[in-house]
Design goal:
289 residues; alpha+beta; Helix Hairpins; SH3 type barrels; Alpha-Beta Plaits; five-stranded antiparallel sheet; 8 helices; 51% helix; elongated
């Protein structure tokens, strides 16, 4: 090989030595540009498929970026390997850096994974009133790392998604109708049948109480100081709070008008007074709590 090179002119030597290198560089550039084109097309197809499946835009954009980043890195490593660069050490460095970042961001990655689950399975949507992560509020935004809730007193609460998925989620807006669970206690001396009749009349005549399912009014318990009625009407979810307040107000006013007492905790104290004559006396004193 050396003897052959010695017989060649200087330009011929450069061509003989440089041609293989140029071919490798050309193939590397071809791999790079062709691979980048393929990655872009793959990302475009992925986003198109997810949009047709009505996937969340946040998840669509994120997965598209992940696929593009991974594909682009693979293309670069393949191109560098084609021109003779040892990519094993490069891959090891990238892998080690990814591991270090993963350990440092363990909590954030957990929240991210939880965000993906929330977006995929959709236990609630924007606008729903939920109890998530121990916070009750209306869902304002569902992001990859956290969810934004607006409480009833108009506070903005940011809840990490891993906190939400680790606890029970109650979605009060998931159904169009909700049952009201109202407990009404009356005095033992009150007219039981009259009280039940009044409760049935109020519930059945309320314009926002649904006729189907039919409301229920029944004696539920004989308590320590009251006879307890279970009042279970149904209402539209959006009107649930208003119906509850209106029913309670009507029941109280009607019971007052009919003389039906609603008991409250009380205590009777008896004081013993021996007096100056040595005779012991008992004086009842009522103390209402």
């Amino acid at each position: 090989m050396d003897f052959k090179l010695e017989q060649l002119t200087q330009p011929e030597r450069w061509l003989e030595l440089g041609l293989p290198v140029l071919l490798k560089v050309a193939v590397a550039f071809l791999i790079f540009f062709l691979g980048r084109f393929v990655v872009r097309m793959a990302v475009k197809v992925l986003r198109s498929v997810m949009q047709r499946a009505n996937a969340d835009p946040t998840l669509t954009g994120f997965l598209g970026n992940v696929v593009y980043g991974l594909g682009y890195a693979l293309v670069v490593i393949s191109a560098l390997g084609q021109i003779g660069i040892n990519t094993n050490s490069l891959a090891a460095v990238v892998g080690g850096a990814a591991l270090a970042v993963g350990l440092a961001l363990q909590g954030q990655l957990s929240a991210f994974a939880a965000g993906v689950l929330l977006i995929l399975f959709r236990p609630f949507r924007v606008g729903d009133f939920v109890d998530a992560g121990g916070i009750k509020g209306t869902v304002e935004e569902i992001k990859i790392i956290h969810t934004v809730l607006r409480t009833a007193d108009n506070q903005e609460v940011i809840v990490p998604n891993n906190t939400i998925t680790a606890a029970t989620i109650t979605n009060y807006s998931a159904r169009n109708t909700r049952r009201l669970d109202i407990t009404i206690g009356i005095d033992y001396d009150a007219d039981l049948k009259l009280a039940k009749s009044i409760l049935q009349e109020i519930v059945l005549n309320h314009p926002k109480v649904l006729k189907s399912p039919a409301p229920t009014v029944q004696v539920r318990a004989l308590g320590a100081s009251s006879v307890d009625f279970a009042v279970w009407p149904w209402a539209k979810t959006a009107e649930w709070g208003d119906v509850q307040s209106e029913l309670l107000e009507q029941i109280k006013l009607r019971f007052d008008a009919e003389g039906i007492a609603i008991p409250y905790p009380q205590m009777d104290l008896h004081l013993r007074d021996t007096g100056g004559d040595g005779e012991r006396k008992t004086l009842p004193v009522e103390n209402r709590l």
